[in-house]
Amino acid sequence: MNAKKRLEIFERLAVAIPEPTTELNYRTTFELLVAVVLSAQATDKGVNKATARLFPIANTPAAIVALGLEGLKEYIKTIGLFNSKAANIITLCRQLLDSHAGQVPETRAELEALAGVGRKTANVLLNTAFGQPTIAVDTHIFRVSNRTGIAPGKNVLQVEQKLDKWVPKPYKKDAHHLLILHGRYVCTARQPKCRHCAIEELCEFQEKSL
């Protein structure tokens, strides 16, 4: 795929998705951090249900530490892997209090040093909270990038590196959410909605359902 076609793809996605943003509910950077940690192998809808109960009670590092491990589990037990996620969140809250005055740090290295925060989670925070042009390659972005030919790769790091190199500059900040939302609602894993796709004739997928 050439640069001209990629540019047109992102131009069309930007028109089709005029407000590309996360579907996780949050009001502060800390709430976003907790929500993203909870979202691993879980749906945004499921996370939002849990945080709608949790955040009115505890939405700061100190408040969550005060809840304690078992107290936190009661709020997030509907989410997959809640035991390990609860342990990580309690630990990262203590890290924020001990090393960052309770604030979420703004660098990749500092974010990835937090419990339960890997490259993907750090990329989400850097992009959504701090406006950096990072792309967290989840299952939707991986599928769309390979299926369309925008940035094919054998693993998430390859896809991320190619997107970082090839996404047109005007769309770098929004590319993360444009691709996620396109993958979630149009370029779905099963029965992609090719007939209603804004980039259908530009996409290089060979098995389109038209």
Identify the CATH homologous superfamily of the largest domain: Hypothetical protein, domain 2
Give helix and strand order, one letter per element, not per position. Answer: HHHHHHHHHH
- What would you call the structural class? mainly alpha
Query: Beta-strand level of the residues, as a percent range?
Result: under 5%
Q: Tell me, briefly, the overall form.
A: elongated
Q: Rounded to an integer, what's the Rg over CA atoms?
A: 18 Å
Structure summary, number of beta strands: 0
Describe the sheet with the most strands: none
**Chain-averaged pLDDT:** 95
SS element count, helices = 10
End-to-end Cα distance: 22 Å
Query: Roughly what percent helix?
Result: 55-70%
- Uncertain segments of ≥5 residues (pLDDT<50)? none
- Please tell me the total number of domains: 2
Q: Which CATH class of the largest domain?
A: Mainly Alpha
CATH architecture of the largest domain: Orthogonal Bundle
CATH topology-level name of the largest domain = Endonuclease III, domain 1
